[in-house]
Amino acid sequence: MADIGIDLGTGTTVVCHPRDGVVHDEPSVLVEWPTRRGRELLLGTEAAALEGRTPPGARVGRPVRGGAVTDLSLVRTYLHELLRRTSRSRWRARRPHAVLSCPVDATPLERRALVESAEEAGLGHVDLLPAPLAAALGCGLDLTDARVQAVADIGAGTAEIAVFCRGTVLTRRSCRHAGDEMTTAVRTHLREQHGLHLSDAAADALKVGASSTREPLAAEGRDAATGRPRVVTVEVAEVEAAVAPVVRRAVAALGAFLEDLPVAGVPDLFAGGVVLAGGSALAPPVRDDLEAALGFPVKVPERPRTCVAEGLALAGGRPARDIRPA
Q1: Class at the top of the CATH hierarchy for domain 4-133+309-322
Q2: Transmembrane segments in this chain: where (predicted)?
Protein backbone atom coordinates (compact mmCIF):
# COMPACT_ATOMS: atom_id res chain seq x y z
CA MET A 1 0.00 0.00 0.00
CA ALA A 2 1.18 3.52 -0.77
CA ASP A 3 2.34 5.70 2.11
CA ILE A 4 0.55 8.72 0.60
CA GLY A 5 -1.51 9.90 -2.32
CA ILE A 6 -0.69 13.36 -3.66
CA ASP A 7 -3.13 15.29 -5.82
CA LEU A 8 -0.81 18.01 -7.13
CA GLY A 9 -3.33 20.39 -8.64
CA THR A 10 -3.11 23.80 -10.25
CA GLY A 11 -5.04 25.47 -7.44
CA THR A 12 -4.77 23.09 -4.49
CA THR A 13 -2.57 20.23 -3.35
CA VAL A 14 -4.23 17.49 -1.30
CA VAL A 15 -2.23 14.78 0.46
CA CYS A 16 -4.03 11.72 1.77
CA HIS A 17 -2.81 8.83 3.94
CA PRO A 18 -4.55 5.44 3.48
CA ARG A 19 -5.41 5.20 7.19
CA ASP A 20 -5.20 8.77 8.49
CA GLY A 21 -7.17 10.40 5.67
CA VAL A 22 -6.43 13.90 4.37
CA VAL A 23 -3.33 15.35 6.05
CA HIS A 24 -2.82 18.38 3.79
CA ASP A 25 -5.34 20.44 1.81
CA GLU A 26 -3.87 23.83 0.91
CA PRO A 27 -3.17 26.06 -2.11
CA SER A 28 -0.42 24.92 -4.49
CA VAL A 29 1.82 27.91 -3.80
CA LEU A 30 5.47 28.16 -2.72
CA VAL A 31 7.15 31.40 -1.62
CA GLU A 32 10.91 31.77 -1.23
CA TRP A 33 11.19 34.65 1.23
CA PRO A 34 14.59 36.39 1.48
CA THR A 35 16.18 36.51 4.94
CA ARG A 36 19.56 37.52 6.33
CA ARG A 37 20.59 33.87 6.39
CA GLY A 38 19.42 33.08 2.88
CA ARG A 39 15.81 32.16 2.24
CA GLU A 40 12.75 30.85 4.06
CA LEU A 41 10.33 28.51 2.31
CA LEU A 42 6.62 29.16 2.85
CA LEU A 43 4.05 26.69 1.59
CA GLY A 44 0.31 26.41 1.05
CA THR A 45 -2.08 28.74 2.87
CA GLU A 46 0.77 30.70 4.42
CA ALA A 47 2.34 31.27 1.00
CA ALA A 48 -0.96 32.07 -0.76
CA ALA A 49 -1.66 34.82 1.77
CA LEU A 50 1.54 36.56 0.61
CA GLU A 51 0.75 36.62 -3.12
CA GLY A 52 0.89 40.24 -4.22
CA ARG A 53 2.55 41.23 -0.94
CA THR A 54 6.12 40.03 -1.48
CA PRO A 55 9.23 42.27 -1.35
CA PRO A 56 11.87 42.47 -4.08
CA GLY A 57 13.94 39.29 -4.12
CA ALA A 58 11.07 37.02 -3.06
CA ARG A 59 9.93 34.31 -5.44
CA VAL A 60 6.32 33.20 -5.69
CA GLY A 61 5.75 30.02 -7.63
CA ARG A 62 3.05 27.52 -8.50
CA PRO A 63 4.37 24.07 -9.41
CA VAL A 64 1.51 23.39 -11.84
CA ARG A 65 0.01 25.73 -14.41
CA GLY A 66 -3.00 24.75 -16.47
CA GLY A 67 -2.70 21.20 -15.21
CA ALA A 68 0.87 20.84 -16.49
CA VAL A 69 4.27 21.00 -14.79
CA THR A 70 6.16 24.00 -16.17
CA ASP A 71 9.18 24.27 -13.84
CA LEU A 72 10.76 20.98 -12.75
CA SER A 73 13.08 22.69 -10.27
CA LEU A 74 10.12 24.37 -8.58
CA VAL A 75 8.24 21.05 -8.46
CA ARG A 76 11.20 19.36 -6.75
CA THR A 77 11.49 22.14 -4.17
CA TYR A 78 7.73 22.19 -3.57
CA LEU A 79 7.40 18.43 -3.16
CA HIS A 80 10.47 18.24 -0.93
CA GLU A 81 9.04 20.87 1.42
CA LEU A 82 5.58 19.28 1.24
CA LEU A 83 7.04 15.90 2.16
CA ARG A 84 8.99 17.39 5.06
CA ARG A 85 5.83 18.94 6.50
CA THR A 86 3.47 16.01 6.01
CA SER A 87 5.72 13.00 6.63
CA ARG A 88 4.98 10.86 9.63
CA SER A 89 7.91 10.07 11.93
CA ARG A 90 8.00 6.43 10.87
CA TRP A 91 8.67 7.41 7.23
CA ARG A 92 11.88 9.27 7.97
CA ALA A 93 14.02 6.13 7.91
CA ARG A 94 13.03 5.43 4.31
CA ARG A 95 11.74 7.10 1.17
CA PRO A 96 7.93 6.84 1.14
CA HIS A 97 5.97 5.28 -1.71
CA ALA A 98 3.53 7.73 -3.30
CA VAL A 99 0.88 7.78 -5.99
CA LEU A 100 0.51 11.14 -7.76
CA SER A 101 -2.26 12.42 -9.99
CA CYS A 102 -1.62 13.41 -13.58
CA PRO A 103 -3.79 14.70 -16.46
CA VAL A 104 -5.66 12.01 -18.34
CA ASP A 105 -3.94 13.09 -21.57
CA ALA A 106 -0.42 13.51 -20.15
CA THR A 107 2.30 12.48 -22.60
CA PRO A 108 4.94 9.86 -21.71
CA LEU A 109 7.50 12.69 -21.47
CA GLU A 110 5.32 14.66 -19.05
CA ARG A 111 4.74 11.55 -16.94
CA ARG A 112 8.44 10.74 -16.79
CA ALA A 113 9.37 14.32 -15.86
CA LEU A 114 6.87 14.32 -12.99
CA VAL A 115 8.07 10.94 -11.67
CA GLU A 116 11.72 11.98 -11.81
CA SER A 117 11.00 15.30 -10.06
CA ALA A 118 9.07 13.50 -7.32
CA GLU A 119 11.84 10.97 -6.77
CA GLU A 120 14.48 13.71 -6.64
CA ALA A 121 12.32 15.50 -4.04
CA GLY A 122 12.71 12.56 -1.67
CA LEU A 123 9.92 10.17 -2.58
CA GLY A 124 10.74 6.53 -3.14
CA HIS A 125 8.72 4.50 -5.63
CA VAL A 126 6.32 6.82 -7.50
CA ASP A 127 3.25 5.77 -9.48
CA LEU A 128 0.99 8.01 -11.54
CA LEU A 129 -2.75 7.74 -12.00
CA PRO A 130 -4.99 10.02 -14.10
CA ALA A 131 -7.13 12.24 -11.89
CA PRO A 132 -10.54 10.98 -13.13
CA LEU A 133 -9.61 7.36 -12.36
CA ALA A 134 -8.30 8.35 -8.95
CA ALA A 135 -11.55 10.23 -8.30
CA ALA A 136 -13.47 7.08 -9.23
CA LEU A 137 -11.58 5.10 -6.60
CA GLY A 138 -12.04 7.85 -4.03
CA CYS A 139 -15.80 7.83 -4.66
CA GLY A 140 -16.02 4.09 -4.09
CA LEU A 141 -16.38 2.98 -7.71
CA ASP A 142 -14.91 -0.35 -8.73
CA LEU A 143 -12.55 0.23 -11.65
CA THR A 144 -12.61 -3.47 -12.54
CA ASP A 145 -16.39 -3.50 -13.01
CA ALA A 146 -17.52 -4.77 -16.43
CA ARG A 147 -19.99 -1.90 -16.72
CA VAL A 148 -18.97 1.33 -18.44
CA GLN A 149 -18.40 4.17 -15.96
CA ALA A 150 -17.55 7.86 -16.38
CA VAL A 151 -15.92 10.45 -14.13
CA ALA A 152 -15.43 14.15 -14.86
CA ASP A 153 -12.81 16.09 -12.88
CA ILE A 154 -12.96 19.88 -13.07
CA GLY A 155 -10.15 21.58 -11.21
CA ALA A 156 -8.52 25.00 -11.38
CA GLY A 157 -6.38 24.38 -14.46
CA THR A 158 -8.07 21.62 -16.42
CA ALA A 159 -11.41 19.93 -16.96
CA GLU A 160 -11.25 16.22 -17.82
CA ILE A 161 -13.57 13.30 -18.36
CA ALA A 162 -12.68 9.62 -18.68
CA VAL A 163 -14.95 6.73 -19.60
CA PHE A 164 -13.62 3.34 -18.56
CA CYS A 165 -14.49 -0.34 -18.34
CA ARG A 166 -12.60 -2.97 -16.31
CA GLY A 167 -9.82 -0.51 -15.51
CA THR A 168 -9.17 0.51 -19.13
CA VAL A 169 -9.97 3.97 -20.48
CA LEU A 170 -12.30 3.76 -23.49
CA THR A 171 -12.49 7.45 -24.33
CA ARG A 172 -11.41 10.71 -22.74
CA ARG A 173 -11.50 14.45 -23.25
CA SER A 174 -9.78 17.39 -21.55
CA CYS A 175 -9.62 21.16 -21.89
CA ARG A 176 -8.25 24.23 -20.12
CA HIS A 177 -11.68 25.83 -19.53
CA ALA A 178 -11.74 25.32 -15.78
CA GLY A 179 -11.71 27.04 -12.40
CA ASP A 180 -8.97 29.60 -13.08
CA GLU A 181 -10.74 30.77 -16.23
CA MET A 182 -13.95 31.12 -14.22
CA THR A 183 -12.10 33.28 -11.69
CA THR A 184 -10.77 35.48 -14.50
CA ALA A 185 -14.31 35.85 -15.85
CA VAL A 186 -15.50 37.09 -12.44
CA ARG A 187 -12.66 39.64 -12.29
CA THR A 188 -13.48 40.87 -15.78
CA HIS A 189 -17.18 41.21 -14.95
CA LEU A 190 -16.50 43.28 -11.82
CA ARG A 191 -14.10 45.53 -13.72
CA GLU A 192 -16.41 46.12 -16.68
CA GLN A 193 -19.77 46.30 -14.90
CA HIS A 194 -18.82 47.81 -11.54
CA GLY A 195 -15.52 49.59 -12.24
CA LEU A 196 -13.83 47.55 -9.52
CA HIS A 197 -10.42 45.91 -9.70
CA LEU A 198 -10.24 42.66 -7.71
CA SER A 199 -7.34 40.42 -6.78
CA ASP A 200 -7.41 36.80 -7.93
CA ALA A 201 -8.07 35.72 -4.35
CA ALA A 202 -11.07 38.06 -4.00
CA ALA A 203 -12.55 36.94 -7.33
CA ASP A 204 -12.08 33.30 -6.40
CA ALA A 205 -13.80 33.91 -3.06
CA LEU A 206 -16.79 35.36 -4.91
CA LYS A 207 -16.92 32.33 -7.21
CA VAL A 208 -16.77 29.91 -4.30
CA GLY A 209 -19.24 31.91 -2.25
CA ALA A 210 -21.81 31.83 -5.04
CA SER A 211 -21.88 28.04 -4.82
CA SER A 212 -22.89 27.98 -1.16
CA THR A 213 -25.39 30.84 -0.70
CA ARG A 214 -28.11 32.78 -2.46
CA GLU A 215 -27.47 35.91 -0.41
CA PRO A 216 -25.68 38.92 -1.99
CA LEU A 217 -21.89 38.84 -1.70
CA ALA A 218 -19.47 41.64 -0.79
CA ALA A 219 -16.55 42.33 -3.15
CA GLU A 220 -13.68 44.43 -1.81
CA GLY A 221 -11.29 46.00 -4.31
CA ARG A 222 -9.94 49.21 -5.83
CA ASP A 223 -12.11 51.67 -7.70
CA ALA A 224 -11.00 51.82 -11.35
CA ALA A 225 -11.68 55.56 -11.63
CA THR A 226 -10.38 56.94 -8.35
CA GLY A 227 -7.95 54.28 -7.18
CA ARG A 228 -9.60 54.32 -3.76
CA PRO A 229 -10.78 51.20 -1.92
CA ARG A 230 -14.43 50.34 -2.48
CA VAL A 231 -16.88 47.62 -1.52
CA VAL A 232 -19.51 46.44 -4.00
CA THR A 233 -22.49 44.20 -3.32
CA VAL A 234 -22.77 41.49 -5.97
CA GLU A 235 -25.78 39.25 -6.56
CA VAL A 236 -25.16 35.53 -6.90
CA ALA A 237 -26.93 35.63 -10.28
CA GLU A 238 -24.24 38.04 -11.53
CA VAL A 239 -21.48 35.60 -10.60
CA GLU A 240 -23.34 32.74 -12.25
CA ALA A 241 -23.80 34.79 -15.41
CA ALA A 242 -20.11 35.73 -15.45
CA VAL A 243 -18.85 32.14 -15.27
CA ALA A 244 -21.56 30.71 -17.54
CA PRO A 245 -19.65 31.17 -20.84
CA VAL A 246 -16.62 29.35 -19.39
CA VAL A 247 -18.83 26.54 -18.12
CA ARG A 248 -20.46 26.19 -21.54
CA ARG A 249 -17.07 25.92 -23.26
CA ALA A 250 -15.91 23.29 -20.77
CA VAL A 251 -19.12 21.31 -21.10
CA ALA A 252 -18.94 21.41 -24.90
CA ALA A 253 -15.34 20.16 -24.85
CA LEU A 254 -16.04 17.36 -22.39
CA GLY A 255 -19.28 16.38 -24.07
CA ALA A 256 -17.36 15.47 -27.22
CA PHE A 257 -16.59 12.10 -25.60
CA LEU A 258 -20.09 11.03 -26.69
CA GLU A 259 -18.73 10.72 -30.23
CA ASP A 260 -16.53 7.80 -29.14
CA LEU A 261 -18.79 6.26 -26.51
CA PRO A 262 -19.63 2.61 -27.36
CA VAL A 263 -23.37 2.25 -27.86
CA ALA A 264 -23.37 -0.68 -25.42
CA GLY A 265 -22.17 1.70 -22.71
CA VAL A 266 -25.17 4.04 -22.95
CA PRO A 267 -27.46 1.96 -20.68
CA ASP A 268 -24.63 1.70 -18.12
CA LEU A 269 -24.26 5.49 -17.93
CA PHE A 270 -28.02 5.98 -17.76
CA ALA A 271 -28.02 3.68 -14.72
CA GLY A 272 -24.82 4.84 -13.02
CA GLY A 273 -24.58 8.42 -14.21
CA VAL A 274 -21.45 10.54 -14.54
CA VAL A 275 -19.55 11.37 -11.35
CA LEU A 276 -18.43 15.02 -11.14
CA ALA A 277 -15.39 15.69 -8.95
CA GLY A 278 -12.78 18.40 -8.49
CA GLY A 279 -12.55 21.77 -6.81
CA SER A 280 -14.82 23.44 -9.38
CA ALA A 281 -17.52 20.75 -9.24
CA LEU A 282 -19.68 22.97 -7.03
CA ALA A 283 -19.21 26.14 -9.09
CA PRO A 284 -22.51 27.34 -10.51
CA PRO A 285 -23.91 26.09 -12.83
CA VAL A 286 -21.49 23.27 -13.73
CA ARG A 287 -23.56 20.26 -12.70
CA ASP A 288 -26.81 21.36 -14.37
CA ASP A 289 -25.13 22.36 -17.63
CA LEU A 290 -23.14 19.14 -17.81
CA GLU A 291 -26.23 17.04 -17.17
CA ALA A 292 -28.19 18.89 -19.85
CA ALA A 293 -25.39 18.53 -22.42
CA LEU A 294 -24.65 14.85 -21.81
CA GLY A 295 -28.17 13.55 -21.30
CA PHE A 296 -26.96 11.38 -18.41
CA PRO A 297 -27.51 12.02 -14.70
CA VAL A 298 -24.54 13.82 -13.10
CA LYS A 299 -23.69 13.03 -9.48
CA VAL A 300 -21.48 15.07 -7.15
CA PRO A 301 -19.78 12.95 -4.45
CA GLU A 302 -19.73 13.85 -0.78
CA ARG A 303 -16.14 15.16 -0.93
CA PRO A 304 -15.53 16.35 -4.50
CA ARG A 305 -12.43 18.39 -3.59
CA THR A 306 -10.51 15.56 -1.92
CA CYS A 307 -11.78 12.38 -3.58
CA VAL A 308 -8.88 12.37 -6.08
CA ALA A 309 -6.28 12.28 -3.30
CA GLU A 310 -8.32 9.69 -1.39
CA GLY A 311 -8.38 7.52 -4.50
CA LEU A 312 -4.63 7.93 -5.01
CA ALA A 313 -3.97 6.70 -1.48
CA LEU A 314 -6.19 3.65 -2.13
CA ALA A 315 -4.61 2.98 -5.54
CA GLY A 316 -1.26 2.14 -3.96
CA GLY A 317 -2.69 -1.10 -2.65
CA ARG A 318 -4.11 -2.28 -5.99
CA PRO A 319 -2.31 -4.57 -8.44
CA ALA A 320 -0.90 -2.59 -11.35
CA ARG A 321 -2.79 -4.79 -13.83
CA ASP A 322 -6.09 -3.60 -12.37
CA ILE A 323 -5.49 -0.01 -13.45
CA ARG A 324 -4.65 0.86 -17.06
CA PRO A 325 -4.80 4.61 -17.60
CA ALA A 326 -4.79 4.43 -21.39
Answers
A1: alpha beta
A2: none
